[in-house]
């Protein structure tokens, strides 16, 4: 009786381990709603497993396991959560690979004790422990990695795919793998699993360093370009001021003539025209923070080149209450995404609204732009199946969570809105 209970508990925990981890690896939020959805999918798959195991036996059930567990999970991730098919497959295979932690531990315990109930008990304990560790410390990493281009995903998915095919062909459809000692043979899978998890951590660290260097380089270039632009503006402003000072006597004489001829309206129009010329000599500064001002100046220039109206409201101090590099990286990604979105619209609809306010020890970013089409949301996050797209949103989420901030993406009428608090 005890052995039967442990056996079914092991099958249940292993199945839920794979279902939940596959979803969380892709970035599905670990909240109550998604837990219920995934539990529902697991209940359906578990029912099929139980029926199949009762009618046809365990050997046949394990062989067709991918049909009633992995296939429905793949369809759920692609059609409900709107993830691309390639990262969905890799995520499922990665979760399957991670099952080898408990598999090897259980076989090792069985070889020492010779008791089947010890094997299942150890597997259950290790499965729960590994799930708790990976869902807490690794899922944020994999969500960023699985959002990368297909070319990089092929590299990431090579090991899980090879092991998935190898394991099913040598243990489920045949018994080739078990021609020798089980502990020795299964240690290969255990070592592969360890290597892959380490690879993910190392790869992410390299990715983070590369991303930080790229962001630093981009922001440095922005500062240099902004400085060059400001120098040109100063030169142009000084030139226009010289002309205005030189012509001031002529302007005063013209105004005097209009007044003496009892034409005050023409005099006022003339004065307004002169004021407009003086306004053109004023160098615009968005805020007192140099790095933030440089980023805004660069995107104002880019928006002007693409005939985009840039409506900006900034209220910040000279020193930001969070990392300047992180804040400007978030802002650059938001403005870059907005620029790409509105350039698809007619010129008269191209406008980007940006508000940045500082209150207490927090910064609020509110960015709004019209959308050519309503984006698809998954768990409140816009997703896309377009090639080499969606990384900007994942980068924003990563940097916001790094600063322990909050983010919100939503539609307001025909406008796409992003609200961030840091």
UniProtKB/TrEMBL annotation:
Report the top EC class in one word.
Answer: transferase
> Known Pfam families for this protein?
HATPase_c_5
GO MF terms listed in the record are: protein histidine kinase activity
SUPFAM superfamilies given in the database record: ATPase domain of HSP90 chaperone/DNA topoisomerase II/histidine kinase
Transmembrane stretches, by residue range? 12-28, 35-57, 63-81, 93-111, 117-139, 151-171, 183-204
Which domain of life, per UniProt?
Bacteria
Enzyme Commission identifier(s): 2.7.13.3
The residues covered by the Sensor histidine kinase NatK-like C-terminal domain are 326-421
CDD domains the UniProt entry points to? HATPase_AgrC-ComD-like
Protein known as: Sensor histidine kinase CitA
Tell me the organism: Roseburia inulinivorans
